[in-house]
Design goal:
Blueprint: E1 4-6, H1 8-24, H2 28-53, E2 59-64, E3 69-70, E4 75-83, E5 89-95, E6 108-112, E7 116-124, E8 130-134, E9 137-142, E10 148-154, E11 158-163, H3 166-173, E12 196-203, H4 215-221, E13 225-231, E14 236-242, E15 250-251, E16 254-255, H5 256-273, E17 277-283, E18 287-294, H6 299-309, H7 319-329, E19 335-339, H8 345-361, E20 363-369, H9 372-378, H10 385-410, E21 414-418, H11 423-436
Parallel strand pairs: 3-11, 14-17, 14-19, 19-20, 20-21
Antiparallel strand pairs: 1-10, 2-4, 4-7, 5-6, 5-9, 8-11, 9-10, 12-13, 15-16, 17-18
Helix pairs in contact: 1-2, 3-5, 5-6, 5-11, 7-8, 9-10
Length: 440
Amino acid sequence: MRTIFLHQRFFASLGLLAALFVLGFALPPLFFIAQALLVVWVAVLALDAWLLYNGSFELNGHRRLPAVFSLGDPNPVYVHLENRSSIPLRCQVIDELPKQFQIRDFVQHVSLRPDEAQEIRYELTPVVRGEYGFGALNLFATSPIGLLERRVRIEAEAVIPVFPSIIQMKKYELRAFDRMAQFNGLKRMRRIGHSYEFEQIKNYVRGDDYRSINWKASSRRAELMVNQYEDERAQQVYCIIDKSRAMRLPFEGLSLMDYAINTSLVISNIALQKHDRAGLVTFSDKIGAAIKADSRSGQLNKILHALYREKERPLESNYELLFQATRKLISGRSLLLLFTNFESSYALDRVLPLLRRINNMHLLVVVFFENTEIRALTRQPAETTEDIYRQTIAEQFLAEKSQMVNKLRQFGIQAVLTRPEDLSINTINKYLELKSRGLI
């Protein structure tokens, strides 16, 4: 393998010498100066080669990766370098990144003093699930002279899986509890009714529901005491993901299906933290993963690996098959979060009778997506007749999406229309709202 390369300084200095030789034909003194400089240049070149290839040269390095990559999130990668040589080195670091990123110009620069170690940090954002293979680390080292480069190839092959967003799951985990501090995007839901399990008796504070006053405890303490309730537990929460071609649209690099997969992991984790039982069903022209709702310790890991293996299918969704699957696989009334996408009222009307039948047996929430690119088009200034025509069509398309939400609600089906990037927040809010209203 070739290890020696010519640096840009080599060609620049050699070009200057050539220019002096050319000028030496017109000015003879310059010719002798050029000859002397050529001898010096050859000596310096030999010295540079000796510095890079003598026995004291030693440059080490390794790459440090997380156990898994998180889909759609910036994931840190660390490259540790150590100069054991007796001279300072300037290094050009070229990491052989996975082919999925299609990054052809990755390079990092670092300067290392003798016996110095440094760590380079960079981030990668995968937008496709699967296995990503890293290659070798290529270090191009130059001495202080800098005429030559020595390549040090460090075998650092590694394969890392890209799972649904674990970072996003942890980010939203603590935000789902009423007693925690409030965060941007997450709404506090007012509880209605008393369909909750008894938790404790506490002192009355202004604003508490007077119907919750515990008169016996109040008489014993000679002050008002109220019963405090918590959400009912052990409810079944299923995430149902449409894998058909309608979910292949990409936004910000991720397909709608991958947005739904990330959110399904988030909501499953929150449901388990809320002591509910989480399950998963995926479908298109046939049923994919089917994980029965449970709250055991390994349930989240089971859902995570099932989501990792899911792939989009280029066919239409079979909602009749979904209806049959919900009858056979899901026992008892459950909350069903259906992640799908309807691009027209006609597409919704075809499956609406089946959605109504599913909603009769369970609490169905249809979550579908707003086309953010069309929304952005309507906000651009219209300068020509063609622009006006395009914006009119775009506004009709957005209005049709809103009509679909109203139609679903008209038939008693919960609906969420959301931007892809707001999917997790809006789904969490809907889940907490339904919990607070005691509908599940």
